[in-house]
């Protein structure tokens, strides 16, 4: 029973074919016996009866006792010759291949594509019908179970041939092949269109209705008219319905449109009545198995070498700033071809994700994820839109996103990705690390800017944002794809109110970093040797998130004091006049030669024009364990060490000369008081030290972050005053009630290369409240602390040195180690044919230290989860060298990735707590975010928190901007400047060259001026000369690359010429296939010097000279 059921279900496709095209064989035979003389015209276009297919093979009895010979004799006649087409007297043959002739006919506006169709006699036509019907009934194979169309044809052709040989053994082999092909193309092909679909010289096949010629787009002769005509509308409908079933779609009067991709990649569009007034239409855009590459586009004149090599530099970004590129143009202008060619320039080390309505891109990239939209099913459910895929892609840690065609809401999502990276936000007490070495609360920073720009606040839904003027833009610390720290500009700031019922996520790490943010805000997470983005709500305990370890060194600025702070700080300014000091009333800014500040009954205080190390040390002591009296009359600090007290008093004497502080000793400690209102006020104003009680509100002064020297002495003052050394840790610890200060000290230590942790603990001295401990632990970081922080406290310094003299570093802290798994080492080692012993020996050599066989074995067996950075680097370099020696480029890239992990400027902190919090209970009203150009990430509370290519239909760069801003895309104007380059492409008819595709404009988005987006057109098309010319406008993208790479414009020109040489060489050598072109582009990224030397040996004389200018 089950077997019969299965057999019936397997015949469902047969029933569909029979019901749409032919009656059962019994009916055909009976009809033949009844007919005295068949009508030739009707046989050419048979009416299709809706009759169910028999679910069994046809026996001789079912044929009514008639033999095949009798049936054929009844219709025997002369061969049926199609009516010839007369083109007139003047016909020129343009090309001939296979069964095809391309003709130029006088009076016809376009060439004629003439295909020689087989001429069948009436006997042969009848044989074809009988064989087809029997094959349908007997073949028990679902065509869809054989995905390869050529294999499908071979299998069906073999069965059909056997049936035909049985029924008509006298037919010649050559004639039988023709008849078998006709049967097969009617069963599983495209009927009359089958030869056109199989012609690789055609790009598109276009059916425009009945009794009208089918048109094709020829790769060489462009639009052509064929000699194929459909007389019966049903023939076209049958092909359309078969395609619809093949892709699991429906087309009928309720849904009269079909847009789909066939299994071979071809793109199909079909329309039927009532939307198609003249009957069904069908357009098949064929999938080119050998797509055009940049070399083809150079030969066709779409690009020239200068522009192609410049775009290569733009797409590459030289490892620091790849451009966001959009290709725009009309239908058929070649946008996708250009996009495919440019995407081949993406470095092979990057993760690429493409999103398309219909998959057309073909890239020689290994790490490539292809996504395709899905239409709704028959019930109208299950649709996956472009916008859905763009949003999902942002969670897949892409280095590059390629959006095949932008038409609707996905444009806004794509631009949001370009601008902010992700839809996330931070609460207002998150500390942001600026590139100038300062640290600010994101809430304070953004609110201050919103006040300044109160008349220019723009909104989008519940978001408020402002575009910063050039002078107000600032840089933050971020991390690039190579895990190296960098600086990037913030061009916009955002805020929104906490939504009703919204919950936030609090993430804590082992080293004490803590951040509160929205559930969708992404982190960078280490996962099996790769770095992926993961939203806050999806984090779990044990995940390893990226935390900044080596921020870029900020500029070392002089800490110049603003003269306005001295206004009214004293009664007089003292100015030397050669004989002494002249008193000048303090009624404004100090004169240029002022040396001291003075008041009645007070000691002179030196006027400070630039903060030095001693004043910075004093500020550290006061903020650590001292205070400024609430009235501002004096400063006071407590000392428990003579050396430490002497350092403080000596420092004070430099600013308050000839003054002896008051000292009071209680046997355990000494209180030192400096009774100078002027000095106290000066410290308060320069360093922002609060008067009176300060324990929970003090902050690290911005001025001490001006340069590393001031910072070192400030930290020394803090730890001398309030730090303590724990020999059991071993560690040195500073405790404070100010969370803001604790996190900024963490940053300051990090700037000096000292890794610390911040922990939140209950304050045991009070019923309520918390304190924050900044902890430096581990011999490596304690050694750095002793080297860089000039402690004056003798006992603390002695304890620290005792630790360093008696303790040894053991394997290093987690921050100096990288997570490791067997998947990172084992596959590449085996691929290179290395034994563990060989790898150990090589890795030890490159690491400069022992990388034992035992360590490698433990890694490969999953027993070791972390490895020293130095050891991983040694392994990575060893693997790269072996890969290079044997020419395995992919293995070299895998080894390079390990090296980047070992040398990265982040460490992988372990998540120890993930919890939802109620923002209202924490007093959080607003959430904030930044638009960070380029890498689209920044450091918040120590944790790293979180580009694109696409095509669009348009006719100019300006129109492209209008389309982006208009429905249905609705991209806010504020987001447009995230786009770097717009490439305009058109297809038009040239009188001399025929139909051609050309780049007509290359423009860069330079920003927003007033109410409009500013465009700089750097290349423009000259139709008279058929060439692109440089407009003389300097490239903004090149200027940005110069800024981020440190290269001069001449050096950037050299980078472009290197790429031009590679492209020119491939043109010379006829290298054009996607595999070959992709191979040499990959070779360039792996070792461009070696490739250029090879080109020098192998190129023409002219090109050789060009190579020598860049080697």
From TrEMBL:
Keywords: Autocatalytic cleavage, Endonuclease, Hydrolase, Intron homing, Nuclease, Protein splicing. CDD domains: Hint, VirB11-like_ATPase. InterPro entries: AAA+_ATPase (IPR003593), Hint_dom_C (IPR003586), Hint_dom_N (IPR003587), Hint_dom_sf (IPR036844), Homing_endonucl (IPR027434), INTEIN (IPR006142), Intein_C (IPR030934), Intein_endonuc_central (IPR004042). One of its GO terms (molecular function) is endonuclease activity. SMART domains: AAA, HintC, HintN. Residues 25-73 are annotated as: Disordered. Residues 27-44 have a biased composition (Basic and acidic residues). GO terms for biological process: intein-mediated protein splicing; intron homing. The keyword Nuclease applies. NCBIfam families: intein_Cterm (TIGR01443), intein_Nterm (TIGR01445). Belongs to the GSP E family. This is Secretion system protein.
């Amino acid at each position: 029973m089950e077997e019969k059921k299965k057999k019936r279900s397997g015949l469902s496709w047969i029933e569909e074919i029979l019901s749409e095209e032919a009656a059962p064989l019994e009916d055909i035979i009976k009809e033949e016996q009844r007919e005295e003389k068949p009508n030739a015209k009707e046989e050419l276009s048979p009416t299709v009866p809706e009759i169910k297919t028999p679910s069994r093979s046809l026996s001789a009895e079912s044929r009514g006792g008639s033999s095949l010979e009798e049936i054929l004799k009844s219709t025997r006649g002369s061969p049926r010759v199609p009516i010839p087409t007369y083109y007139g007297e003047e016909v020129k043959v343009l090309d001939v291949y296979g069964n095809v002739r391309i003709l130029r006919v006088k009076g016809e506006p376009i060439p004629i594509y003439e295909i020689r169709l087989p001429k069948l006699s009436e006997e042969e036509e009848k044989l074809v019908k009988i064989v087809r019907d029997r094959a349908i009934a007997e073949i028990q194979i679902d065509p869809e179970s054989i995905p390869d169309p050529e294999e499908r044809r071979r299998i069906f052709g073999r069965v059909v041939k056997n049936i035909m040989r049985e029924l008509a053994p006298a037919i010649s082999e050559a004639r039988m092949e023709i008849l078998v092909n006709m049967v097969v193309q009617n069963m599983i092909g495209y009927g009359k269109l089958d030869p056109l679909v199989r012609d690789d010289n055609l790009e598109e096949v276009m059916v425009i209705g009945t009794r009208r010629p089918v048109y094709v787009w020829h790769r060489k002769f462009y639009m052509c008219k064929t000699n194929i005509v459909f007389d019966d509308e049903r023939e076209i409908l049958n092909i359309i319905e078969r395609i619809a079933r093949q892709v699991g779609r429906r087309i009928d009067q309720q849904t009269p449109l079909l847009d789909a991709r066939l299994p071979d990649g071809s793109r199909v569009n079909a329309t039927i009545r009532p939307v198609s007034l003249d009957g069904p239409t069908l357009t098949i855009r064929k999938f080119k198995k050998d797509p055009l590459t940049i070399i083809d586009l150079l030969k066709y004149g779409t690009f020239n070498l200068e522009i192609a090599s410049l775009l290569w530099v733009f797409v590459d970004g030289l490892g620091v700033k790849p451009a966001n590129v959009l290709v725009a143009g009309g239908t058929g202008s070649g946008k996708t071809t250009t996009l495919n060619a440019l995407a081949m320039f993406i470095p092979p080390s990057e993760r690429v994700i493409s999103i398309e309505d219909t998959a057309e891109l073909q890239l020689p990239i290994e790490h490539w994820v292809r996504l395709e939209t899905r239409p709704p099913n028959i019930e109208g459910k299950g649709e996956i839109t472009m916008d859905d895929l763009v949003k999902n892609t942002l969670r897949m840690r892409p280095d590059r996103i390629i959006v095949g065609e932008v038409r609707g809401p996905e444009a806004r999502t794509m631009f949001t990705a370009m601008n902010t990276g992700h839809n996330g936000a931070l609460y207002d007490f998150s500390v942001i690390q600026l590139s100038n070495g300062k640290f600010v609360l994101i809430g304070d920073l953004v609110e201050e800017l919103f006040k300044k720009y109160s008349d220019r606040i723009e909104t989008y839904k519940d978001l408020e944002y402002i575009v910063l003027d050039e002078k107000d833009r600032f840089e933050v610390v971020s991390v690039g794809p190579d895990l190296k720290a960098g600086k990037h500009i913030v061009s916009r700031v955002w805020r929104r109110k906490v939504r009703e019922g919204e919950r936030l996520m609090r993430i804590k790490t082992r080293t004490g970093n803590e951040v509160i943010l929205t559930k969708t805000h992404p982190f960078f997470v280490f996962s099996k040797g790769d770095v992926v983005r993961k939203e806050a709500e999806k984090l779990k305990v044990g995940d390893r998130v990226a935390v900044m370890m080596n921020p870029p060194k900020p500029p070392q600025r002089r800490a110049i004091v603003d003269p306005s702070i001295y206004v009214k700080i004293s009664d007089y300014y003292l100015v030397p006049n050669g004989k002494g000091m002249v008193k000048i009333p303090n009624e404004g800014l100090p004169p240029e030669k002022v040396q001291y500040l003075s008041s009645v009954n007070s000691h002179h205080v030196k006027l400070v024009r630039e903060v030095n190390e001693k004043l910075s040390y004093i500020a550290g002591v006061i903020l650590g364990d001292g205070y400024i009296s609430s009235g501002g009359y004096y400063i006071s600090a407590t000392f428990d060490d003579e050396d430490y007290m002497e350092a403080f008093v000596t420092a004070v004497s430099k600013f308050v000369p000839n003054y002896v502080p008051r000292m009071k000793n209680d046997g355990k400690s000494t209180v030192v008081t400096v009774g100078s209102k002027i000095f106290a006020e000066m410290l308060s104003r320069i360093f922002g030290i609060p008067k009176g009680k300060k324990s929970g509100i003090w902050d690290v002064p911005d001025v001490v972050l001006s340069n590393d020297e001031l910072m070192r002495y400030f930290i020394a003052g803090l730890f001398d005053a309030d730090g303590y050394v724990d020999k059991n840790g071993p560690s040195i610890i500073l405790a404070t009630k100010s969370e803001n200060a604790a996190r900024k000290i963490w940053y300051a230590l990090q700037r000096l290369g000292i890794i610390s942790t911040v922990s939140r603990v209950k304050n045991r001295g009070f019923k309520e409240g918390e304190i924050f401990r900044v902890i430096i632990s581990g011999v490596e970081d304690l050694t750095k602390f002793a080297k860089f922080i000039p402690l004056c406290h003798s006992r603390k310094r002695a304890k620290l040195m005792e630790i360093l003299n008696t303790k040894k570093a053991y394997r290093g802290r987690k921050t100096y180690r990288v997570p490791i798994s067997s998947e990172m080492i084992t596959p590449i080692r085996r691929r290179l044919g290395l034994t563990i012993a060989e790898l150990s020996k090589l890795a030890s050599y490159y690491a400069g230290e022992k990388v034992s066989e035992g360590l490698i074995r433990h890694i490969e067996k999953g027993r070791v989860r972390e490895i020293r950075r130095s050891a991983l680097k040694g392994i990575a370099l060893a693997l790269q060298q072996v890969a290079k020696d044997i020419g395995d480029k992919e293995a070299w890239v895998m080894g390079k990735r390990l090296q980047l992990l070992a040398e990265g400027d982040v460490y992988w902190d372990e998540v120890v707590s993930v919890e939802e919090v109620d923002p209202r209970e924490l007093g959080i009203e607003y959430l904030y975010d930044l638009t960070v150009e380029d890498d689209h990430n920044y450091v918040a509370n120590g944790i790293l928190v979180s580009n694109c290519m696409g095509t669009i239909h348009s006719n100019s760069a300006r129109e492209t901007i209008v389309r982006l801003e208009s429905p249905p895309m609705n991209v806010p104007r504020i987001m447009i400047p995230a786009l770097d380059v717009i490439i305009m492409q058109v297809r038009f008819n040239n009188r001399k060259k025929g139909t051609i595709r050309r780049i007509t404009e290359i423009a860069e988005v330079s920003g927003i001026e007033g109410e409009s987006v500013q465009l700089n057109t750097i290349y423009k098309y000259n139709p008279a000369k058929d060439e692109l010319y440089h407009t003389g406008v300097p490239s903004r993208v090149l200027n940005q690359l110069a800024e981020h790479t440190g290269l001069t414009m001449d050096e950037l020109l050299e980078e472009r010429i290197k790429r031009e040489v590679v492209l020119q060489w491939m043109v010379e050598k006829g290298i054009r296939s996607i595999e070959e072109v992709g191979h040499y582009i990959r070779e360039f990224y792996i070792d461009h010097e070696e490739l250029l030397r090879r080109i020098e040996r192998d190129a023409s004389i002219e090109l050789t000279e060009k190579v020598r200018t860049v080697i």
